């Protein structure tokens, strides 16, 4: 399965411009609130119509402005899981699941029973949505969505309103329930942990523009752009200067200007690089003799949490002109 999205949509104070192509079955869209994540899903589902461009899978063209093609939502074979699950409040669990099915009554009844068993909803078929827990509602919504046998499933921030314990439990449940799904799953989230956990490839959006896309682990390792690095969890950034210093033929030197430190590197830094980022968990404390690529710091603030200590460090020198460095220790 694959998914191609090449669209532009202009709103009153916002412009969405996405160019993305993936052959993965599990795709993540990462971005801050207001970056265009949900609007992208709505364009895939047919709820919103782009101004121009194209959206397609190997089997279907959902939208093609040049060819004047725009499939109706019910013709796209797309399942959409909203943040609040959007269950029909006047239908019980079994009726909600069956609402997506067509065919003879006996066949529908049999399919609903299969889905109730598969999604561990036995004994809950007659309950109304308000009588179900959050996890049970999610399973009903997933069962209803899969009952229609879609080619593509869209998950719009499905865990955003949950507490930490329930979120982890429901993430594991959803992974297990979707394990056998043969189509494409697109998960939208502002949580880097959810994206890293679920997706094989990721698209990073910033203010309606696609910043970078590729294999999830590669993007987290080398996010390329500062905003992409920030969205994937990087806390420390410094502008880069290139001093006329070369220690030897095998070492390259740059200055992290915001921290007042020369960094001696084994590989050259491309000329277009204007900023470096360093993750808060990757810093290593050093006592005694000062080696290369280290800087003397003073602890400005610290926070002791149940499973992590956070330190905010001021580099040596004129502290007022230097940015604090975040160091997180698990």
UniProtKB/TrEMBL annotation:
InterPro entries: AAA+_ATPase, ABC_SmlMolc_Importer, ABC_transporter-like_ATP-bd, ABC_transporter-like_CS, P-loop_NTPase
SUPFAM superfamilies: P-loop containing nucleoside triphosphate hydrolases
SMART domains in the cross-refs: AAA
Entry keyword set: ATP-binding, Nucleotide-binding, Transport
Keyword ATP-binding applies: yes
PROSITE patterns attached to this UniProt entry: ABC_TRANSPORTER_1, ABC_TRANSPORTER_2
Domain ABC transporter, residue spans: 2-232
One Gene Ontology term of the molecular function aspect: ATP hydrolysis activity
Name of the featured protein: ABC transporter domain-containing protein
Species whose genome carries this gene: Eubacterium plexicaudatum ASF492
Source taxonomy: Bacteria, Bacillati, Bacillota, Clostridia, Eubacteriales
